[in-house]
Amino acid sequence: MTNPPRQIAFIGAGNMTQSIIGGMVKNGYSASAIYASNPSAGKLELLQSRWQVNISHDNNEVANAADTIVLAVKPQLMAEVCRDLHKQVTNLNDKLIITIAAGIRLETYADYLGRQARVVRVMPNTPSLVGKGMSGLLANANVSITDQDFVTTIFQQVGETLWVSNEEQLDIFTAIAGSGPAYFFEFMASLQQAAVALGFNPEHARRIVEQTALGAATMAIDSDLELTELRQQVTSKGGSTAKAIEVYQASDLAQISAKAVAAAVHRNQEMAKLF
Ligand SMILES: NC(=O)c1ccc[n+]([C@@H]2O[C@H](COP(=O)([O-])OP(=O)(O)OC[C@H]3O[C@@H](n4cnc5c(N)ncnc54)[C@H](OP(=O)(O)O)[C@@H]3O)[C@@H](O)[C@H]2O)c1
């Protein structure tokens, strides 16, 4: 983390903010350099009691105290929150703005905050809530490399990060990483159902599937081999796995995934038009 730490304010103290702040403080970020604002009291009190960060009900107060502002409210509230900050916060253009709201393009923030605003869009995914996230990051032209490095460090507190170069790539990233946990849950549930249909009780079936998914993901992360090679390594010729893989390939799993991802990308593009 930077030394001295940047003063960073989170606007909205919901699930994502709770996870990011938790990750930051656990990894040594100074709690006195962290601020959070939220309308209701409970979430702020939780943040203060767990991590001793500075809290307020006033967005403008925490934004004025900070040099980096993380916008972590629901997308439909973003226009109002930004316009208020634009009016009330002094030297807003000197501050780095990080937004985690889904579906709002960088260009739209130029409307909300002015063309000089330094804005980074971050698309974290739900596993960030358990420190295993995958975040896509996109900066506008006003953001420096030093700022980008800082944003990378913040989101590494809740998982892995990847910079993309345009909004189209972020839509694709979102269709894979943002929606991806749902695809894996769907597949895992189908395997659980198969095990139950063949006689396992649901609890045991779930444990088998969960641990197998975790083991496969860990092997993939630890290995330099291509995913297809890893798959081949557990598929002996003429064996039972080969028979199962033949069934998946007959249904063209790759084609199904391509169609599913294309549908999600299309929907991301449609939703961006709402803002
Ligand atoms: N959770 C995820 O996995 C995930 C993944 C990717 C992106 N995101 C994005 O991250 C953002 C936050 O998500 P979340 O899951 O943390 O949502 P959340 O738990 O609903 O948190 C949003 C927070 O914003 C607060 N809020 C409402 N109006 C506000 C205002 N005017 N000023 C300041 N704070 C205000 C809410 O407070 P009250 O409860 O008191 O109303 C709530 O605590 C969203 O834009 C979402 O699209 C989330």
Q: What would the keywords be for this entry?
A:
13% strand; 2 domains; alpha/beta; binds NADP nicotinamide-adenine-dinucleotide phosphate; ProC C-terminal domain-like fold; elongated; Rossmann fold; 12 helices
Detailed description of the structure:
This protein has 275 residues and is of the alpha/beta class. The chain folds into 2 domains: 8-165, Rossmann fold; 180-272, ProC C-terminal domain-like (ProC C-terminal domain-like fold, Orthogonal Bundle), CATH 1.10.3730.10. Helix content is 55%, strand content 13%. It contains 12 helices and 8 strands. The protein has helices spanning 15-26, 41-51, 59-65, 75-88, 106-113, 145-155, 167-178, 180-197, 202-222, 227-233, 240-250, 253-272; strands at residues 8-11, 34-37, 54-56, 68-71, 96-99, 118-123, 133-139, 159-163. The protein has an 8-stranded mixed β-sheet with strand order 3-2-1-4-5-6-7-8, with helices on both faces. The longest helix is centred in the last third of the chain and has 21 residues, at 202-222. It is elongated, with a radius of gyration of 22 Å. The model has no long low-confidence stretch (mean pLDDT 96). It binds NADP nicotinamide-adenine-dinucleotide phosphate (NAP). The site of NADP nicotinamide-adenine-dinucleotide phosphate (NAP) has 25 residues, from helix 1 and helix 4.
